[in-house]
Amino acid sequence: MAYLISEEAKDLLQDVHEFCENEVKEQCKAYDVSGEWPKEIYDKAIEMQLHSLEVPEEYGGPGLSRVDVAALIEEMAIADAGFATTISASGLGTKPVLIAGNEEQKKHVCQKIIDGGFGAFCLTEPGAGSDASAGTTTAVKDGDEYVLNGRKCFITNGGIASFYCITAMTDKSKGVKGISMFLVDAGTPGLSTGNEENKMGIRTSNTCDVVLEDCRIPAANLVGQEGKGFSIAMKTLDQARAWMGCVATGIAQRGINEGIAYAKERIQFGKPVIRNQAMQFKVADMAIKTETARQMVAHALTKMDLGLPHSKEAAIAKCYASDIAMEVASEAIQMFGGYGYSREYPVEKLLRDAKIFQIFEGSNEVQRIVIANNTIGR
Amino acid sequence: MNILVCIKQVPDDSVEVHLNAEGKPDLKNITPVVNAFDTYALEMAARLKESSEGEITVVCMGDASAKNSLKNCLAVGADYAFLINDAAFEDSDTRGITHVLKNAAKKIEADTDKKFDLIFCGKEATDAALGQVGPMLAEELGVGVITNLIDIQLDTDKVTAKQETEEGYRTVESKIPCVVTVSKPEYDPRYPTIKNKMAARKKPIGNITMSDMTNIKAEKVGKENTLVNAIKLYEPPKKEAGVKIQEETDEDSALKAVAMMAEAKVF
Amino acid sequence: MADCKDIMVYVETAEGNPVKVALEMLSPAKELADAKGGKVIAVVIGNNIHDAAQKIAQAGADQVLMIDAPEYEKYNMDVYADVLANLMKEISPEVLFIGGTQDGKDLAPILSSKFEAGCASDVMNIKIDDTGKIVFTCPLYGGTILEDIEITSFPKIAVLRSGAFPKLEDSTTGEIIEKQVSISNDCIHANIVETVKEIAESVNLEEAEVIVSGGRGMGNKDDFKMVEDLSNLLGGVVGATRPAIEEGWISKIHQVGQSGKIVAPKLYIACGISGATQHISGIMNSDYIVAINKDEDAPIFEVANVGIVGDVKKVLPIMIEEIKKIKEAQ
Predict the structure, then answer these.
(1) Collapsed DSSP state (helix, strand, coil) of residue B55
(2) Are A27 and A82 within one domain?
């Protein structure tokens, strides 16, 4: 069961488990209600370096394999999916630079994270969700600078990031081939954050608009080449999706944990309800789904580690894990009966948390397109 | 500042311990953890080290399973760690434990050619809660002891410590070297950072056995040489559970409870 | 030397009076001395402590050794340990009793080391078995297991738990002997330079007849006041669990449980307390326990005479009102 991980990752997993039990799990209940971004929890996580697991070793990261990291991220997701999302979305925000950036840019963003910062990835716009070519954010070259204008929305970590990887049109006439990727530090004049979403779930993560108004950045902040922005973004998402599958798996695992614990305690007709085969089969089905999702995540990440193509595997992992997270969360509520529907109990939150994983970082419909294309061929 | 921290592994104290069928404490499914007060001691020592300079050595008497605990200590501030492990030490009483700890400290001092300035212990272990080892170790070493610390400050040749009392605290000064035992300070022990933990896993853990300690007296250690012997273990008589009230509303429950209390004439 | 049967009792004083456990220790001391055919020899150390010595003499000690000199005005562990060590050499008692106060718990292991004397901590009960062996009962693992132990050394040292032994009812008056003990100055390693009392109130949980305690379930400091209200209404003392204290709702002097005070009131009301082992083992000797907790599986219900499954914040105000009515009617 679980991920096959190194001995040292097993050790780290214990520490992360202890941290999440003591500092995250219960504390996040109140933040789920208030919707406030729990800075003190993140500060503690940063102190423990939980936020920099994905930073490559040569830039000061721990040098763990992706599957090792996945085990730790899942543990965080078991405690609170919003918490794990913040950390994972920071990895997402870093990936464009790690994929296509130059040495200086890589050092820059990794150092920002090591120093306790988070990254944010800004692709989506009000009129450009699945269709990135409809984006209206522009970057105009002006001497040694680019001037960015536009509005990004639904940006995870938008309000709390130290740096942003932002896509903008450098040549509108070329459609997605006219999109470029830019690295913008927080605090750059012209960059501001707007409307913060009042979300259904993952309420301990921050999601808001990122607004660019004549935001001037050095031309050196172009990541890769002009016109490569869409391709970089797609490569970024190809990797990041597997991580979203990892977080979704954590939600499902929490559902199993809570369901079993409750069904062992809950007495009906004179015996714990877990003794009923109907309950046992439910648990078995939840386990089949969750374990399958987890191994698909591991497979996609292993291919990534080996430098092999992974688009299809990452898409399957994200799509399947998020779909089953919804199912397992729903079944966990069913196991709790009426109590499961109550906010006093921990399982309704799982359903609210799980839903977004079917939507963001490429909706599951888009994932199916990716999977179909990679399966059928063009 | 050369600091020694003595730790002990205990069964996780958030789990209730009961007797098994053989009448022994059933510890089979309880994770061994570092005694909470020892983790506070290590944290206080680590803070002291960071505010001045120095090194921390951690020792633990126990079997090989304690190595993991020692590794954890190396990830949260300790520089060196030693496991004191010998079948001859098993089931020693506090006199035996103190005797072994003293000789282990002497051995490490001789090997490194550096004396310990401060020896930290937890104020007591959560299993037997005797609180004897710290003061006994000080007495054996012929140095002072301050117990129940919640804070410590270092001067050139003395320590000034805040000793927790029931009504507040005392400020106590002691010459160095000395032994201190630690209660719960205002802060919590740190979590190991990912990188410190990974580095700690690669550090060696020293092993100290009976034969490594030249002045140890075999007649003071082990099960055969205890001054305190267990005759029997048993569980205290259980109080019978009474009635549980869960009416439709909390108000009804409260009224019913008060009626029962009134009937029992408890107020 | 080994046939000396005397029981030595160290009497700690606070503000010129013997501490409670010191008086309590005289009863098991007397029992042991009678069985062994020895004397109870109490030792009081301090400055101007004649009154305390007098009280001890009247409370059941055969002899009271009074070490009364200005240099003992302030407690110093090294000095007091040295005085006691000197007296132990002279008297050569079979057993030394020390009260389980904070300072007592320090002195015992120091003396244990000096004399290679086996030491029993937190002794809850003492008996003599058929063979004349003294058996001490001590808690393990927060009190879920008890251990009967014997000490094979001579002398033996036992630290007695406060509140575990009843004071002697009627007793004859013993003699007071004033003694000079010379101590060596080089015994002093540490000094108390300041004593700060942060808690002005006096809280006597151990002798309280009614205790109303609050735990984490009280939620916040404001609601914790309800615990105090009920306690005031019943003329009781307020208790608390460690989490409630760590939250800062009340000072630590109110802590009930293994690491706080072991209590035995006639009525104990546990509000929003789930019942950790450490807490339950500290209240087991209460005559009547009432518990209010929303979790019907909370362990506190296993020891409660009356358990109310419900929201403590809704239950308490109603209980307070109802008890008020009953009290007014009386």
Answers:
(1) strand
(2) yes
Going through C54-155 in order, the beta strands assigned E by DSSP cover 63-68, 95-99, 118-123, 125-128, 134-140, 145-151
Contact list, B197 vs chain A (CB under 8 Å): 8, 11-12, 15
Range of the structural domain that residue A301 is part of: 231-376
Q: Quick: pLDDT tens for A160-194.
A: 999 999 999 999 999 999 999 999 999 999 999 99
Q: How distant is the Cα of B267 from the closest Cα of chain C, in angstroms?
A: 7
Size of interface A-B (CB pairs under 8 A): 33
Q: In the beta sheet, which residues pair with residue C288?
A: C267
**Contacts (Cβ under 8 Å, ≥6 apart) of A190:** A148, A212, A213, A214, A215, A216
What is the pTM (predicted TM-score) of this model? 0.89
Same domain, A293 and A165: no
B143, B148, B239: residue with CB nearest C189: B143
Q: Which of residues 58-97 of A touch B (CB under 8 A)?
A: 62-63
Spell out the domains of chain B, with CATH numbers in brackets. 2-225 (3.40.50.620)
C172 CA: distance to closest CA in chain B (Å)? 34
Distance CA A350, CA A354 (A): 6
Catalytic residue check, A265 = no
- A144 and A217 in one domain? yes
CATH code, A90: 1.10.540.10
Closest among A108, A187, A191, A179 to A155, alpha carbons compared:
A191
Domains and CATH numbers, chain C: 7-187 (3.40.50.620), 210-329 (3.40.50.1220)
Could you tell me if the ipTM is greater than 0.85?
yes
Q: Where is the domain boundary, A91, A114, A137?
A: A114
CB atoms within 10 A of CB A103: 8
The one catalytic residue in A23, A75, A331, A361 is A361
